[in-house]
Structures are given as structure tokens and as C-alpha cells.
Design a protein that fits this description.
alpha+beta; 5-stranded antiparallel β-sheet; 4-stranded antiparallel β-sheet; globular
């Protein structure tokens, strides 16, 4: 991993009997005991879109009264909500994933669902916290349930990549148990090119918003799991590390958000 060496309490994996496997055989999902919970992590969030549209109407009225500066701030808030979606989920280890193309999202529980996480707490490996990150840029998925991995390690890898980007302008890491690499490279006009090698996709992402989204997602993960699983600060060093990096990102880009009017050339 270029320039990235885990130094925090990230668990080491590699045992052949570990929970997560890189090779997945064809078949179906065998849910041995299904939780009676309603979760819909995939697809469009209709309630959020209605809220955004209402906020847009309010923004138009408010901005006419208070001028360009506040109008710019309000539009920034609206664009930010629509740009990235980043959520963390934990996997119920009673369930076996056998087909990456047909994963039942209900075997995952979002970490901010405190009661839901506590219902599956005894089926969660607290050392590794197997789960998945759902990361989307507008309607373009970057990470999905099929990219599930030990979340403690994965979020720290992302945080360390952010630090490396701030220091050198680029970073690269291999996902903990998932057979895939991610590489990041800064480009002019405030963009980052992200490459995911398992599907050979490239994403041009606004740098400040992307780095902020990652670190806020990491902070949310460590805070929510600490509460839901009663970990008593088990991953406090990782949480503080992510918060410190978030402050550095905000300081680096304190003059505001990037323009979305032009994209860099390949």
C-alpha cells in the first residue's frame, strides 16, 4: 500500500477460517434467521428528495430577500445533500452470502439504527465489524453491498488515504479482505480521480466534498457503533484520528466549495 501503513488498532486478518472470503461461489443467499426489520438501503430516497425540493423553494424565497452571499450558502447546502450518499452497514453473521450479484440488503443494518444494531449485536464480530459502505456520487455507485469487508480496517484505510492525499496529492490502498484496490490522484481545478480496479471504473470527484464525505462517514461509523454495541471507546483512537483529519480538510479548503462548471481532461 503506497505510503500507507496502519499504525492504529486495526485487526490483522489472513486466517483461512476468517469470516470474509475473497472468492465467492455462485449460488444464493442463505439466511438462517431473518430479522423482522424493514430496511431499504438501495434505490432513491423519496422522502429526502421531497425535503430537498421544499428546501429549494425556501432557498429561492430567502435568497431574494437576503442577497447573493446567503443564496450561495444555501445552494451549497442543497448541492451537498444531493452530491454524495455515504452510509455504513454491519452484516448479520448468521447470514451467508453466496452470490455477489443477488445480495439481500436486509441482512445488513445501518449503523445509525441503534436498536437494529443491538438486535444483532451477538451476531457481530466486534473485532472486525464486518459490513459494507454504500457510497454514491449522484446516481453513480462507487461502493455497494457486494464490496463488504471488515469495517474497522476499511474506514481507517480510507482515512489514511485522505491524509496521504493531503500530504502528497495521491494515495493507493488494497481493501482488507475484498480483492480490489483503490487509487486516488489530485487534479487541477479541485478534483480527484478515483480508480477502482475490480471494475476498472474512474470517477472525477470534487475534492473537498469527497474527502469531507469520507471522513464524516468514518466519524459516524465509529461513534454509532460505539453507542449501539457498547464498545466503551474501543476505537476511540481511530475516531480521534478521523476527527483531526476532518479539521485539516476543512482548513485546507476553508475558502469554500469547488465550481462544478468544468471537469478536467483525462
Amino acid at each position: 500500500m503506497k505510503g500507507l501503513t496502519p499504525v492504529l488498532s486495526v485487526p490483522a486478518r489472513g486466517d483461512a477460517a476468517s469470516t470474509t472470503k475473497s472468492t465467492v461461489a455462485p449460488g444464493s443467499i442463505d439466511v438462517r434467521e431473518h430479522l423482522n426489520q424493514e430496511r431499504s438501503a438501495l434505490g432513491r430516497d423519496t422522502a429526502k428528495l421531497i425535503k430537498i425540493r421544499s428546501c429549494s423553494k425556501w432557498c429561492q424565497v430567502y435568497s431574494r430577500s437576503y442577497g447573493r452571499k446567503r443564496r450561495s450558502i444555501l445552494h451549497t447546502i442543497i448541492w451537498r445533500h444531493r452530491m454524495f450518499i455515504c452510509k455504513s452497514f454491519l452484516l448479520d453473521l448468521r447470514c451467508t452470502i453466496l452470490d455477489l450479484d443477488n445480495i439481500d440488503p436486509t441482512i445488513f443494518t445501518e449503523v445509525t439504527d441503534i436498536e437494529g444494531i443491538r438486535k444483532i449485536a451477538q451476531y457481530v464480530d466486534k473485532e472486525y465489524l464486518e459490513g459494507a459502505i454504500l457510497l454514491r456520487y449522484y446516481d453513480d455507485p462507487i461502493l455497494s453491498f457486494s464490496d463488504w469487508d471488515p469495517m474497522v480496517s476499511l474506514w481507517i484505510y480510507f482515512a489514511m488515504a485522505v491524509e496521504e492525499i493531503l500530504n502528497t496529492g495521491e494515495a493507493h490502498f488494497c481493501m482488507p479482505d475484498h480483492p480490489g484496490d483503490l487509487s486516488f490522484k489530485e487534479h487541477p481545478r479541485g478534483f480527484i480521480k478515483l480508480h477502482t480496479d475490480w471494475n476498472d471504473k474512474r470517477y472525477w470527484l470534487p475534492e473537498k466534498e469527497f474527502l469531507t464525505t469520507l471522513l464524516q462517514g468514518a466519524v459516524e461509523f465509529y461513534e454509532a457503533t460505539d453507542i449501539a454495541l457498547r464498545l466503551q471507546g474501543k476505537y476511540l483512537p481511530e475516531l480521534n484520528y478521523c476527527k483531526e483529519l476532518l479539521e485539516k480538510v476543512q482548513e485546507r479548503f476553508k475558502w469554500g466549495y469547488h465550481s462544478y462548471l468544468s471537469l478536467p481532461n483525462e
